[in-house]
Automatic annotation (TrEMBL):
It is found in: Membrane. InterPro entries: Bac_surfAg_D15, BamA/TamA_POTRA. This is Surface antigen variable number repeat-containing protein. The keyword 4Fe-4S does not apply. Residues 153-370 form the Bacterial surface antigen (D15) domain. Its main location: membrane. Residues 40-98 form the POTRA domain. Keywords: Membrane.
Length: 473
């Protein structure tokens, strides 16, 4: 029969105790079946998946009943598969145990499911980041509110339904459905969705490396509608490829068009189809705050305009990151990201590089426009404090009655470069090296949440304190 031993010290979402200190399986099997060099998988059991369908879990395994596994590498093989199940991000923790009898293995994966339905109130700042919001004179009117509803693991099949109803300064109505895979092997999936967006203000120009904002109290200076549908090919949670087709209709007000006639090429309205293909190889030990492993992503998008005056655009993107344990409580991370945007002419709205989705830390107050960019980020983290899991007394539900908490001290160096031969109006940051260094405190806690506070100094001699809600590399 299966052993009932489970390590109580494992922590959901915290990589080192969860994945780097698990050598007991190898030694246990060697004692049970010392004369065998190869072992046959007899039984695979799953415990704790009350909502999650077993086929979702089996699809992540690279072995099945009847397969033969090498005894010498069994521990590493079981751990790699346990990590894949954990990185579905459906469970607080996943544990593995195996016993051997007469050369035949019985393998048990035990898990604690998360809470899957999240109605989250929206109360957010209507700007790129906290620093940009502080720079606005009407900052207290630039608030968004509403409700964001996510149903993860819908039907127990790792599907996701997302809905947004956002009012206030920026209005947004969205509905998306994502199914990573259908069938026994769960290889082919789909994604569909629709979004409608309006805002009372629009950043229509870049001047002195900062966005120039136009506010319109009556009507909306910007409206966007898009629908999307796509196919997913998924080998495991670590290797995914997606092909999407989306239709976009966008319109700016006449007031914005007069201020920047090249915001869109061809007039204040545009429609286009976009075809995008992307592939991700994610071999990090955990996805929320990775400490070991690697990540690679490549993508290409082709945008074909249905309105006159706008030539087609091809965008190439790539990203690679590496994470390594340095010994003790020290970890190293390095990431390289790049973009190349090809087209005879592009409008202001498409001429975006750093300061939007990606940035050199320390330049949060600025945007650097351009077609092409490269970004290199490095950091060393030290695990400063690991509290394990706090138990919340009086709450019986195991999905929410314990809170993991880990603190990391992080030092970092970022460097970037944006190529923009047409930079004008005092925008001095394109076409020159950008760099910054800093010190940060990273908090890893409940449901893969990561909070960071970072102090940075850039090569312009400017200092700043910045808040973020994800792992920067």
């Amino acid at each position: 029969m299966l052993l009932s031993w489970y390590p109580l010290s494992s922590r959901a979402g915290v990589a080192p105790p969860d994945s780097l200190r698990r050598a007991t399986t190898d030694s246990l099997i060697q004692v049970q079946c010392p004369e065998y060099t190869a072992l046959r998988v007899g039984t695979i059991l799953f415990v704790g998946n009350k909502v999650t369908k077993e086929q979702v879990l089996r699809a992540e395994l690279d072995f099945h009943e009847g397969d033969t596994l090498a005894a010498a590498s069994l521990g590493k093989r079981l751990e790699a598969n346990r990590r894949r199940i954990f990185n579905l991000q459906l469970f607080h923790q996943v544990l593995v145990q195996a016993v051997c009898r007469n050369g035949e293995l019985s393998i048990l994966y035990s898990m604690q499911e998360r809470w899957y339905t999240f109605p989250i109130p929206i109360f957010s700042l209507a700007d790129r980041n906290y620093r940009s919001w502080l720079d606005r004179s009407d900052r207290w009117r630039r608030i968004d509110y509403g409700v964001h509803v996510v149903r993860r693991n819908f039907r127990g099949r790792n599907e996701q339904v997302l809905a947004n109803v956002q009012l206030g300064f920026n209005r947004k109505y969205e509905l998306f459905y994502e199914a990573p895979g259908y069938g026994r092997r769960r290889r082919i999936g789909v994604g569909v969705g629709a979004s409608f967006y309006q805002s009372h203000a629009l950043d229509y120009q870049t001047l002195d490396n900062r966005l120039v904002n136009f506010r319109q109290d009556v009507g909306f200076p910007i409206q966007r509608l898009y629908t999307t549908a796509g196919i997913r090919w998924r080998r495991t949670v670590q290797h995914r490829t997606a092909f999407d087709v989306s239709y976009h209709r966008e319109q700016i007000s006449d007031s914005v068009h007069r201020r920047n006639p090249t915001y869109y090429l061809g007039g204040p309205k545009r429609e286009y189809l976009e075809f995008s293909l992307s592939s991700i190889l994610n071999q990090r030990n955990t996805f929320a705050y990775p400490l070991t492993g690697r990540y690679a992503e490549v993508g290409i998008a082709y945008r074909s305009f249905l309105t006159n005056g706008s030539p087609s655009i091809v965008t190439l993107r790539a990203r690679y990151a590496r994470y390594a344990a340095l010994g003790g409580s020290f970890y190293y991370s390095m990431g390289i990201t790049g973009q190349a945007r090809l087209g005879r002419r592009i409008g202001y709205a498409d001429n975006r590089a750093l300061g939007y989705d990606r940035l050199v830390r320390g330049y949060d107050a600025y945007v650097i426009d351009g077609r092409h960019y490269a970004l290199v980020q490095q950091g060393v983290s030290y695990r400063l404090f690991d509290a394990g899991r706090f138990r919340l007394h009086g709450i019986s539900n195991p999905k929410i009655n314990s809170i993991p908490l880990v603190l990391y001290l992080n030092t970092f160096v970022d460097a970037g470069y944006v190529r923009n031969p047409a930079a004008t109006m005092g925008n001095t940051l394109p076409n020159r090296p950008l760099a910054a260094l800093g010190l940060g405190l990273h908090v890893v806690t409940y449901y893969d949440w990561v909070f960071t506070v970072e102090a940075a100094r850039n090569v312009e001699g400017q200092n700043g304190l910045f808040f973020r809600t994800d792992f920067p590399i």
